[in-house]
Amino acid sequence: MGINSSVSSLSKETHLRDVEIKEENPACVQRVCENAIDNGEREKANTSILVDTELGNSGEIDVSPIVHKVTEIVRAENCAASMEERLEKVGLEFDAEIVEKVLKRCFKVPHLALRFFNWVKLVNGFCHTTEIYNTMLYIAVEAKEFVLVEELVEEMEKNSCGKDIKTWTILISNYGKANLIGKALLIFEKMRKSGFEPDEAAYKLMVRLLCIARKAEIAMEFYKEMVHKHMGLDMNLYKLLLNSLVVSGDIASVHLVADDMIQISQIPEHNVYPCMLKSFCIAGRIREALELIRDLKNRNVTLDPQNFETLVKGLCRADRITDALEIVDIMKKKTAVDEKVYGIIINGYLRRNDISKAFDLFQSIKESGHLPTTSTYTELMQHLFRMNEYQKASELYDEMLEKGVQLDSVAITAMVAGLVCQNRTSEAWEVFNTMEEKGIRVTPKSYSIFIKELCKISRMDEILKVLNKMQASKITNGDSIFNWVISHLEKKGETEMVEKVKQMQRAYKLYPQACEASRNDLSSRQELNMELNSNQIEPERVDSHLVESLSKSYNDKDLKEICGILSWSKDWCLIKEALEKCTIQFTPELVVEILRNCSLHGHSALHFFSWVGQQAGYSHSTETYNMAIKISGHAKDFKHMRSLFFEMRRRRCLITSDTWTIVIMQYGRTGLTEIALRNFREMKANDCKPTASTYKYLILSLCGRKGRKVDEAIEIFQEMIRVRCIPDKELVETYLACLCEVGKLLDARRCTESLRKIGFTIPLSYSLYIRALCRVGRLEEALASLDEVGPERSILDQYIYGSLVHGLLKRGCLEEALAKVEGMKQVGKSEEALKLISEMLDSGIAPSTVNFRTVFHGLNREGKQNLAHTVLQKKLALASRRKFST
Q1: Which Gene3D superfamilies does this UniProt record tie to the protein (predicted)?
Q2: Are 588 and 620 in contact (CB under 8 A)?
Q3: Number of C-alpha atoms within 13 angstroms, CB side, residue 100?
Q4: What sign does the dihedral 84-86-88-90 (CA atoms) show?
Q5: In the chain, what are the domain boundaries?
Q6: CB 666 within 8 A of CB 572
Q7: pLDDT tens string 39-83
Q8: Which fold has domain 338-406?
Q9: DSSP states of 162-196
Q10: Is the pLDDT of residue 806 over 70?
Q11: Is the pLDDT assigned to residue 10 strictly greater than 80?
């Protein structure tokens, strides 16, 4: 299979859907500059995208002072004048070289780079070159601004700016990062059709992306073409390709690639075979691994102890510890077995929860003079803590200290967690502080584990101490820990503590050293977004009936203009700049409609809500807060949702029943029914009367699979009936289905009686109950209920025929189901009878000639000749199938 056929087939497959890339080895995904510079020493001058040299291409004029000056202006913050005004005042002339170098120096601040890029193209006589576009594209790709990448490509085409090989490589990388492998393949083919022969960097990038996407077969086609063109892979990419081929089961290709590594790339055998062995073991292909060992032994290839260690690890992971011990015996005959190998065996025993054998081997290796590794001690301690063997675990830790075993953060954190579980927090603090004394860096993971264990025993004072310590230690990515603590405290109803932690978090975010550290982190993109939890925004429809539709007092043109601004970019800085240039007079009515229309762009919508609230002459209304709370809830950003709610209280904005309903609905939808109930009680305690919608969404959540609380649902439904709030059909169906499912039939019967009291007819009440019984397979109870109806039985039959037939067919009661079909014709339900005949045929059940004739005549009698003809066709098709089968 050639690459062209592979590309076309996969492109068709993935053009309408994204291909999910599961990055098993994140280190394998390199930046575009690394993709384009696989041999840095050899190709630095030709392929580097972002090498920030100080001298221009002329070799004569040193532009570095100008570049430095412009960069200072672009990256300056908190200035009275805007960047554009300061650039105009400086009066410098810009050429392509200066612009490119400035953009490279703004790599860490992509939003500022884009502003400079957009400003400079307005300068008279200046046009962006391919190199400038490449730099801006690269910055956008690294910032994962995929929409911006598309816009830049369109702009290049519009301005007739040609693409070069680097442009294509960046675009391939862009789609790879966006998990759109099909599009990456299409771009590769477009590059070829445009007259550009893909270079080694482009091929390597495609092989890497395809391997990560588990498309080993297509990756192999690209690799073969590389070999044909005398291109090679580096060692890391060879390993990735081998791993991908082994996982796919293409063992023949694994051996082919290994041979190429030795013969073409001249990689020594003692480096190639361990890679093969490791790939087999990681994928759990032990038979192939043993065959490789046997083959190497027959060819008299010397195997070093590292290869046997890899095999032992693979066998233990495959739960073949007996075989692993045999390998260890072979190793003993040839060379000494170190404590690392024994540690692998102990880990194998712990994996299968065979603690006694793990400790027997642990004891024997100590008696043989070996000192177990830190990881072995740690794993044993963790298992002992899980078994509540605190004393034994503590003795192991003391033994580590006595024998001088090198401690690491994992071992110390494990001991801290164990001590906290016993409520020995003072000792836990002593152990935790030894990390700093020993010069061990305390990781965010260590703080996170410490805090979570303290939460389990509800030591709020100690949690604050840990957070204070974390804040003082300048941990740069501790914001997620604060969020977790806040969420935990909110679930427990610790309102006062929540506010304290939020204050600490705000101080933490403003801590200057932490900000600087964040700025220096290439992987950080905090400067692109504010602290709203935008990555959780989900494209869900906003239930607009809970947000009052206000009288229209705004211009549709203004609405479209603002919605366009909010949706054109993900960069809030650019959006804010565009908003500040607008001369629109904002009103609460306009803001509600903007939020409603932009609810799918939740991140931008919530930023806009915050921004517009600070504008002179404007103040938020209850309706605008309601909509913002709803958008936050859909994003599952309950922290922000709650803060908006409290903000309404602080500003004395009227909190209506709709506000409470939205909050209750958002918690209930995600299964947080306990919090939803707490808000419902708080709502009533604040003298706010629940509406029919409040009761509906609370009961629906209590009846849901996630967070189900049936007793509370019964209590609240009864309360709803008492206060004369009329439930709708959706609510009644869900509520009855839940009761029937859990066997609370008496409560379900009471519900039907309650419905009649508030205006539901007898046939309708019974039909909802009988349908619920049929759905959960309680046919006996459903049929028994029919006899209780009385004179309105004929009306009820019209409602529930379909449900009864479905239930009977599921039970295998064919004759009774067919009798019901006959009955449906008699009461003018022939069309539903036709649907049931179709379902019977699909299920392999053959209706009789009488059934077909009955439905056929019924449809003709009802004037539905086209459907009657369908019945005839189905009968003829069934007869022809029977004839063919005989």
Answers
A1: Tetratricopeptide repeat domain
A2: yes
A3: 22
A4: negative
A5: 259-335, 338-406, 424-508, 812-886
A6: no
A7: 333 333 333 333 333 333 434 567 788 888 888 888 876 666 788
A8: 1.25.40
A9: PP-HHHHHHHHHHHHHTT-HHHHHHHHHHHHHTTP
A10: no
A11: no
